[in-house]
User: Fold these one by one.
Assistant:
Number 1:
Amino acid sequence: DSGVPLIKAGALTTCTHLPYAPFQSKDDSGKVVGFDVALIDLVAAKLNVTQEIVDTPFEGIKSGADLNSGKCDVAAAGMTITDERKQVLDFSEPYFDATQALAVVTGKKVATLDELVGKRLGVQGGTTGEEYINAQVKEKGLKIEVVSYRDLAALQQALVTNQVEAAVNDLPVWNEYIKANPGKVEVATGFDTGEQYGFAVKKGNAKLLAEVNAAIAAARTDGTYDKLYAEWIGE
Ligand code: GLN
C-alpha cells in the first residue's frame, strides 16, 4: 500500500479525451492504448492497481472540473502545460515536447497563414492550437475563418473532405495520422510553440503527483521511457 488515496478501490482512474493517437486511442479490439496510457500504466503498477480510463470532453479535463469532482484521479490527454491551466491543475514534470503544425491535403501549397486569408482553417476546440491560431489571426489582422471542431477525429475528417483548407493541431498527431493514412495529408508548415505535455492531478494531491513524477523519472532512467517512445512515437 503506497498510502495514496484513490477515488475507486483497486483502480487508478484516468481522464482522457479520445481519440488522440499516438497518445491515446482505441485499438482494433476497442482497448484504449497509446504513449500516455503506457506511462500511466507504470504509475498504476507502482500503486498495485489497474488503470481505468474515462473518455470525457477536453474542456472538463483542462478546467480541473473532472479531477475536482472525483471523476478521475489523474488526467492524461496529451495536455500542454500552460500558466492558465496551472491555476486549476497540478502538473507533473513534463513528459513530452510538442509544437503546432498546419496540415493540408497532399499537394495543396500553403506555406504561411497569410495564404489562408478568405479560407477556412480548422482547429480543435479548447486546445493550445486553437488559442495559438486565434492569437495569430488577431495579431496579424488576418481574415481567416477559424472553424473549431470538438475532437481530433472531426478535425481530420473535415480536412480530408475539404470542409477546411488546412487544419492545425499538435505535430505528433499529424505524424501519426500520416503514418496510418499514407499519402492523404501532409504537414505544410510548423509553428514553434515550444509546448510540453504534463499529466495532471487535482490541485493539492501531492501524494499522487509524487508517484506520477517518480514513475516518469524511473522510466527515463531505466530505459522504459525510450522504449515506449520508440514504440508509440517513432524516431
Ligand atoms: N496539446 C494540446 C493542448 O493541450 C492538445 C491536447 C488534446 O487535444 N488532447 O491543448
Number 2:
Amino acid sequence: AIGPVTDLHILNSFIQPDGFNRSGVLAEGVFPGPLIKGNKGDNFQINVINELTNGTMLKTTSIHWHGLFQKSTNWADGAFVTQCPIASGNSFLYNFNVPDQAGTFWYHSHLSTQYCDGLRGALVIYDPEDPYASLYDVDDESTVITLADWCALCSFVYSSMIYPSPQADATLINGLGRSESGPADAPLAVINVIQGKRYRFRLVAISCDPNYIFSIDGHSFTARTFLLLVDIKVHEDIIQVIEADGVNHAQVAADSIQIFAGQRYSFVLNATQNVDNYWVRALPNVPTMSNFSGGKNSAILRYQGAPDAEPTSDSTAHNQLQETSLVPLDLNPLPPAETYPDVDLEFIFGFSGGKFTINGTTFVPPTVPVLLQILSGAKSATDLLPKGSVFGLDLNKTVQVTFNAAAVAAIGGPHPFHLHGHTFDVIRSAGSSSDNYINPPRRDVVSTGGATDNVTIRFRTDNPGPWFLHCHIDWHLEAGFAIVFAEDVGDVPTADPVPDAWNDLCPIYNKLT
Ligand code: C2O
C-alpha cells in the first residue's frame, strides 16, 4: 500500500492475471493499482506521472478519486468535466483534503474506457477516532477485496469503444482469476484468516460493467451437530455489513451481497469455522460466465493451518443483503423531510443508434471542460456546454432525482448511477414500492434496477462546482449516459481556486479565452 503523499506512475506493461498475456494501462505496472491508504483529515498529494507509450491505446489520462467530495478542490475530481487530460510525458499533482470522510473508496481513470484496461485500484480512508469502532470490535481491518471484470483478448477494443460492449471473460478477485477459455490452473487470490478472529473486509466493485453476487462458502449458514446424529442449520450472523460507499451503516446480517460497478461495502467476518479452505465467490451478471466450475469467478479464504490447496467446500447463500435494510449510523445532516424538494427532476432514459439519452439528450463531452468554461467567464448554467446535459443548481437546495422505472424497463437494466461530489439519500431503492424519508441508506452509487419501480435519490447542494452524474457501466458512460450538475456556478471561481498546473493542462483552450 502507498500513503497519501506519493507519486503514481501510469504505464503500459504486460500482465497475465488470468493466464493470458496482454498489455494494460496500469498504475505502477500492477493490477489492480496499488492500494492507496490515508487517514481522515489527511492532505493527499498524489502526483500522477503519465508514462504511457502504447499508441494503440489511449496515451492521455486523468484519475478520479471515486467517492471523495473534493470540497473546494473540484478541479482535482479527475473527470473531463473538471480537467483537461494529462498528456504522455507530463505529470499532474492532485492535491486535496479529506476532512470529513472515512471508509472504502477507489480510484480510476476517468478518460474514455481506459480503466477497463487496468487503471483502477482501491483507496481506503481510516478513521483513527472511529466513533463506531467498538460496535465492530474487529481484530484486523486491513483486508481489501477488489472485484473486476477482465477481457484477455480485448486489449485494443477496450480503449476504443464500440457498441455492443466488449464482453468480459474473467472475474478477477484481487487481480487474479480464471477465464472461460484460459489455463485451468491460473493462480487464484488467497485471503488469509486466523480461526477465532474478527475481520473487517472491504469489498470494492472496480468493475467496468458486471455486478456481482458475492459470498463466502461456509460463512453464511453453518451446521451444528446435536446429539451427534442430527444436523440442523443455525444462522450465526457470520457476515455483517457495516459500511456502504464510505458511509457507516448499522450492522445488518447477510449471506450474500449484490454489488454494482463502483459500489463498496465493508462487512465483519467472524472466522469461526473449521480450519480449512473456503471458496470466495463473485458471480457476474454475464450469461457466458454463470458458473463456478474449476475455480472461475472465485478466490480462496484460507484459515491459518489449512493446506495450500483449493477448497472442496460447496454451499449456497440464501439471505441476500437488501439495500432497504441499510440504515446510516449518523443521520447528520438529517435526510430531507417528506415535503416537496426544492428541485424535483425526473430522468427518462433512452437508447438508440448505440447511444444512451437522458431526457432526450446524449452526453457528448464538450471540447472545453465545464470547469474551464466557468472559470473563463460563464456566469450561469445555461451558458454551459454541452447543451441539454448541464443542469444548474443553486446552493443549499434539496435536489430530488427520480429515475423513471418505465424508461429503465424500455432500455433494459440495471444501471448503477454515480454522483460525484456527494453522497445521496436513497429515498426509494430498486424494486421497493415505498419511500423512506426517515433513515434512508446513504451512498454514492445506486442501481436503477431492472425497473419495477422508480428509484429516487435526494442530496443537498453544498459543494460548488460541476459534478458528473452517470451510469458506472463504463461502456454506457462512453455512449453518453451522463449529465452534469453545475452547482452554484457563480461561486466556483472563488470557492475553488485552481493551481497553475491545472491551467497548464489546457494550453490550447486557454489561448482561446
Ligand atoms: Cu467512479 Cu465518474 O466515476
